């Protein structure tokens, strides 16, 4: 039941909310919400919002991949180095925790930021399954929400251009900047805490 609740909140805020907002922006007329939205229509909006949210997520993933290629590995490396410095993560601590978790047999010769990138998925999976560190779900949900809302804001800018609505263009552009800023912040928290808690759980 606890897992179901987490998945429901994750889906609601990460997929359904951005998808529903995108659908409402696309419809252009929100007046029916006050009078004409039935229970069946509301359920349909949630279902379609979820589907649209999944599509938005896939688009956001491809957009992020493109941006990563544009900025190059050096930029990404600095991002991970910042996390390692802030939380005092060293290659010695990482290697020790990874060995204790039986993810590696012998120490890796890479730097801490390279090791983090290589084993991030494994470390995250180990930590998020532990109820002691359930705050990680909140950071991950917020990260997904703001990433998808960035795409929705960009979508709003596009609609503004088509409709020649300057107010919608400005609001959408400001929203995109704010959402991407918060997405980066929560991504850093999510990955940073995942690594720190992994070391706390398995380090000696």
What percent of residues are in strands? under 5%
Number of helices: 8
What is Rg? 20 Å
Order of helices and strands: HHHHHHHH
Q: What number of domains?
A: 1
Helix share bin = over 70%
End-to-end separation:
33 Å
What is the chains' assembly state? Answer: single chain
Give the tally of β-strands.
Answer: 0
Largest sheet: none
Uncertain ranges: 1-7
Structural class per helix/strand content?
mainly alpha
What shape does the CA trace take?
A: elongated
Average pLDDT confidence is 76
Notable features of this structure?
204 residues, mainly alpha, 8 helices, elongated
Describe the structure.
Helix content is 83%, strand content 0%. Residues 1-7 have low confidence and may be disordered. With 204 residues, the chain is mostly helical. The two termini are 33 Å apart. Helix 4 packs across helix 6 (112-128), helix 5 (91-100) packs across helix 8 and helix 7 runs antiparallel to helix 8 (166-202). It has one domain.
Brief characterization of the structure:
The protein is mainly alpha-helical and 204 residues long.
Write the layout of secondary structure elements.
Layout: H1 2-27, H2 32-35, H3 39-71, H4 73-86, H5 91-100, H6 112-128, H7 135-163, H8 166-202
């Amino acid at each position: 039941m606890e897992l179901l609740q987490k998945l429901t909140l994750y889906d609601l805020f990460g997929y359904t909310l951005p998808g529903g907002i995108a659908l409402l922006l696309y419809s252009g007329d929100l007046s029916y919400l006050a009078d004409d939205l039935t229970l069946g229509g509301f359920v349909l909006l949630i279902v379609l919002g979820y589907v649209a949210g999944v599509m938005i997520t896939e688009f956001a993933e491809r957009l992020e991949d493109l941006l990563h290629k544009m900025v190059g590995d050096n930029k990404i490396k600095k991002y991970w180095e910042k996390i390692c410095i802030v939380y005092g993560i060293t290659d010695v601590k990482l290697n020790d925790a990874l060995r204790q978790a039986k993810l590696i047999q012998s120490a890796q010769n890479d730097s801490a930021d390279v090791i983090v990138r290589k084993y991030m998925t494994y470390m995250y999976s180990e930590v998020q399954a532990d109820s002691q560190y359930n705050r990680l779900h909140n950071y991950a949900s917020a990260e997904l929400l703001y990433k998808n809302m960035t795409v929705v804001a960009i979508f709003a800018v596009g609609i503004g251009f088509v409709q020649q609505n300057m107010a919608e263009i400005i609001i959408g552009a400001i929203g995109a900047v704010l959402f991407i800023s918060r997405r980066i912040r929560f991504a850093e928290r999510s990955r940073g805490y995942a690594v720190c808690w992994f070391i706390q759980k398995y380090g000696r």
